[in-house]
Amino acid sequence: MRYIRSITGNFVSISEIEFMAKLTSSKVNTQIDGIDRRLSVAPMMDWTDRHCRYFHRLLAPQALLFTEMVTAEAILHAGADRFCAHDVAEAPLALQLGGSDPKRLAAAVAAVRSYEFAEINLNVGCPSDRVQSGKFGACLMAEPELVAECLAAMADVSIAPVTVKCRIGIDDMDPILGLDRFVDKVADSGIKHIYLHARKAWLKGLSPKENRDIPPLDYDRAAALAQRRPDLHIYLNGGLVSCEQIYAELPRFDGVMIGRAAYKTPYLLAELSAELFDTPLADRYEVAGKMVAYAHAQIHAGARLHNITRHMLGLYAGQKGARVFRRHLGEQARQPDADPIIIEQAARFCAEANDRKVA
Fold it and tell me: Could you identify which of 109, 198, 292, 332 might form a hypothetical disulfide with 222, taking C-beta atoms 3.0 to 4.6 angstroms apart as the criterion?
């Protein structure tokens, strides 16, 4: 027997067959703006750049992808194109902004209208010292009124839905009352979609890396919020690394946001996408072939091959030849005269090692 969150927010028991039907049905995630958020890839600094997103799109054609976080000030000072230019193939794509000044955030949102992002997300979850010094990220969870003001200002000028990504708490914040108060205040701004990292962030004493592992995950606390606020759409983030684990948690939420696992073991996205959206499973070798064509075009435009292939190193994780694949791309792509054909060569080796016939 399984339990799944109904449209009213209550948890009801269903059979295994009904569960799989629900899992692949768009009704799992009530949509109010035409965006299917059952599967998304978290914004990750230095990782989810445009090359990474193109690669992820080949694996998961319907997943919602996110840019790296961009500060409002960076957009206003350096211009939007430097940070927001993207390939149309990356859509649907969300822009994540960082900031705490409602007027400046609104100005940044207005500046990116022409880029046609599917949604604009406010970062209230990053725990790094650099982010804290700029007074944005997870430290804003201590100021829910300010966050609500920022979100309202962004929504006033945005043509796309405005959403928020946050933690279940920070430091010694009460895990029940603190999160409830924060979410209630945020919801007062009209926000309906919350990406919830199910760990607290410790802003003093832990590095960003430690904040990804040391504070314990609390999926039940996240689920309790989803049940308490059935009018909101809650998407689980944090520590999601396998299909089995994700399928076990998904019925309690409106969707899942995959972080580091999408980068370290990217084929997870293909497996999830095929199951959730009832679409053909992407083929690793075919994806590699499409990345060869993409790399040729990008190099012609001035990109370096290594900056593309570095995102692909985990494509064959768990498969025979995975180490050879990583080493071949890692070493050869750095050469001054590197040719994108090295991607196909490495993929062919792995495909044949795994008894996959290639032409």
Answer: 198
User: d(Cα 210, Cα 218) in Å, to the nearest integer?
Assistant: 16
Q: Tell me which residue range forms the domain holding 77.
A: 13-277
pTM: 0.90
Distance CA 9, CA 95 (A): 28
Question: What share of the chain in percent tops pLDDT 70?
Answer: 88
Residues 120 and 49 in one domain: yes
- Nearest 5°: the CA angle 140, 143, 146 is 95
Is residue 7 scored above 80 in pLDDT? Answer: no
Q: Residue 37's closest CA among 249, 318, 235?
A: 235
Would you say residue 96 lies in a domain? yes
Active-site residue among 52, 126, 150, 166? Answer: 126
Q: Pairing between strand 65-71 and 39-41?
A: unpaired
Strands of the chain (E only): list them. Answer: 2-5, 11-14, 39-41, 65-71, 93-98, 119-124, 162-170, 193-201, 233-237, 255-258
Instruction: Decide if 67 is inside a domain.
Output: yes
Active site residue 243: no
Q: What is the pLDDT of residues 194-252, one digit of tens each?
A: 999 999 988 877 777 776 777 889 999 999 999 999 999 999 999 999 999 999 999 99
Q: Give the number of domains in the chain.
A: 2
pLDDT tens column, 301-352 = 999 999 999 999 999 999 999 999 999 999 999 999 999 999 999 999 999 9
- Are 123 and 176 contained in the same domain? yes
